[in-house]
Structures are given as structure tokens and as C-alpha cells.
Amino acid sequence: QDAEIVRTRDPELLARCDVVVDVGGEYDPGRHRYDHHQRSFTESMRSLRPDKPWSTKLSSAGLVYCHFGSQILAALLGQPEDGPAVTALYDKLYENFVEEVDAMDNGIAPAAGEPRYALSTTLSARVGHLNPRWNDPEQDTEVG
């Protein structure tokens, strides 16, 4: 509630943050560091939660969801974290939303070989439409 969001790649600033997501080159949940940009990083939902079937390499979004998704859903639903409603919703949200984010962020194609059709309404495509065009003279994404 009282958190300040800092957008930076400055290691000195990152070192002072309580939680770091998608930058810093470190995955260490004990220190709340959730980046997937290391050559050695291979974690999936299944590797971190063996009771889950998904083997798609996690993005930073997937890491945060893996570690906090059940807790957040439980709080929103007013249900126990290990209850059937939270478990079912956690699984469905991962399978039908977060896994796509993980795959797209890690460059994992939705199909082997040539896709049979274009995916133009993915989350990545929608976010991409918010970015300035490559030749737009105003490239500041913070202007809005």
C-alpha cells in the first residue's frame, strides 16, 4: 500500500529496494529478487511447485505469480490459500493468462513449425500497441 515503484537498472538503487522484479540478473526469493535474465535460469512452475504440471520457463511475471499468486487470490477471495477455490483459480489463471506471458517473454513459440494463423490480440501485442512506433520522433514511453 505504501510502496514506491522505482524504474531503474542502477545496481546501487536496486540494492536498496525491498523487492526487485525483471532487472538485476538475480533470482533469489529469500531476498525478493525475481529476475529471469540469467543464462543459467531454467525454472518453471513445475520445478518450483512440483504439484503443478507446467514446464514453460518462467518470466519475472511468472516468478512473482508462482511465489505470491495463491496468497493474493486468497486475500481477494477471503478464502484459505490452500482451499479448492483458490487452487482452482490459481491454476486457471496460470494456464490461461500467465503462462502466455512467460512464453512470450522468453521467446517460446506458440506452435512448433509454421503457425497456422496470426496471433494479433495477445497480451504482448496489446502492450506493443501502446509503445511509440520505431520512427516516432517522441520516444518517451512515460508521456501519456
Overview of this structure, please?
Belongs to the MYG1 family. One of its GO terms (cellular component) is cytoplasm. α3 (60-77) runs antiparallel to α4. β2 (27-28) and β3 (33-34) form a beta hairpin. The longest helix has 22 residues, at 84-105. The chain has a 3-stranded mixed beta sheet. With 144 residues, the protein is mainly α. It contains 5 helices and 3 strands; from the N terminus they run αβββαααα. It is globular. It has helices at 11-15, 45-48, 60-77, 84-105, 123-130; strands spanning 20-21, 27-28, 33-34. It starts with 10 loop residues before the first helix and ends in a 14-residue tail after the last helix.
Secondary-structure topology with pairs:
Blueprint: H1 11-15, E1 20-21, E2 27-28, E3 33-34, H2 45-48, H3 60-77, H4 84-105, H5 123-130
